[in-house]
Amino acid sequence: MTPDCKARRPIDGSHQDGNHLRTALQLAAAGVPVLPLRHGKVPFGNCRSCKDGACGGRPNMKAAGPCQCPAPCHAWAAATTDPQVLTSSVWAPVWREAVTVAYHPGGAGLTVVDLDDAAAIEWARETLPATRIVPTTRGEHWIYRGTMTSSNAVRPGVDIKSSMQYARWLGFGTGATTALPDGVRALAVKEPPPSRTAPQTLTVPLRGGQGECRHRTPAYLERGIAMAEQRITEARSAVHATVYRTFLAVLSAHGRCGCLTDGHVARLFTAAQAKGETLRHCLDAWTNALYRLGL
User: Fold this and answer.
1) CA angle 167, 171, 177 (to 5 degrees)
2) Closest by alpha carbon to 138, among 159, 114, 110?
3) Residues whose CB is less than 8 angstroms from the CB of residue 195 and which lie 6 or more positions away in sequence, other chains included
4) One-letter-per-residue 3-state SS of 180-235
5) Beta-carbon count within 10 A of 64 CB
6) Is 123 helix (H, G, I), strand (E, B) or coil?
7) Whole-prediction pTM value?
8) Which residues contact residue 24 at a Cβ distance below 8 angstroms, ignoring those fewer than 6 apart?
9) Residue 89 DSSP class
10) Angle ∠(181,106,149) on CA atoms, nearest 5
11) Pairing assessment for the beta strands 167-168 and 132-135 based on DSSP bridges
12) pLDDT in tens, 273-289
């Protein structure tokens, strides 16, 4: 179950009664991993036994999973749906000090697009498909079904909270939760700016040498190009990101040895354009990959 469960009475995100534990237990029963937040909307610090990652987690709170100790540790990784943990004697004093409840979106199979101001909201309304919306203090949370890598400041006023991240619980909101769109996934892909704008008239932007690859056999090169074509062709989501990463992988292996020909690059461009990418995007993605590798 997810926070858009229709069978449950909406929970007031303000928690005026101060009973954060009751809210946490309701969410946990719906399959939403929860954790307490202190003043400043930040998690409670690691317990003494886990200080500086002594328990095996990393002190930057990017641990791969919940700590083995019973105390709330490592921010998002402390989120749980276990009522025995939430009501344990170790957690009891933490809930008394908590000022609100947070949840781990990725653990609930969700992604939160955190829109921090009116401009960001306007952008979302013009760009993203409608989904469940939860009002926040300054903006809105747009909640989608599906998970991805979390990323801050993907554009002005927009953060993405999903895996290895927490979001403040502010109620169920309104609207139906829809599937995570490719447009949101693409926001988290960091492409470096091109060193120069590639001429639009080019069919392919790289003329490699005609000689043999100095460190790979011709068969290896052919297999690599075929696999790259297949990777692009089989992309079911985030096509934009897949094209860029595939170009980057090909250039990483063969961009410096002069073995790539116009024919090889044209095959990659053809595969990308068959998935709906424009020539302009192919040129930009290729140029960005060259820039990234210093070629």
Assistant:
1) 80
2) 114
3) 287, 290, 291
4) CCHHHHHHCCCCCCCCCCCCCCCCCCCCCCCCCCCCCCHHHHHHHHHHHHHHHHCC
5) 10
6) helix
7) 0.58
8) 34, 36, 86, 95, 101
9) T
10) 60
11) unpaired
12) 888 888 878 888 888 88
- Distance (Å, whole) CA 26 – CA 143: 19
pLDDT digits (tens, 9 = 90+) for 5-47: 433 433 334 343 348 999 999 999 999 999 998 888 888 765 5
Tokens in use for 176?
A: 């139906």
User: How many C-beta atoms surround the C-beta of residue 128 within 10 A?
Assistant: 17
Answer for the pair 73, 50: CB distance below 8 angstroms, yes or no. Answer: yes
Rounded to whole angstroms, the Cα distance separating 243 from 234 reads 11
Nearest to 217 by CA among 259, 247, 266, 261: 259
Question: What 3-state DSSP class applies to 58?
Answer: coil
DSSP H or E run through 43: strand 42-43
Q: Which two tokens stand for residue 268?
A: 């990659």
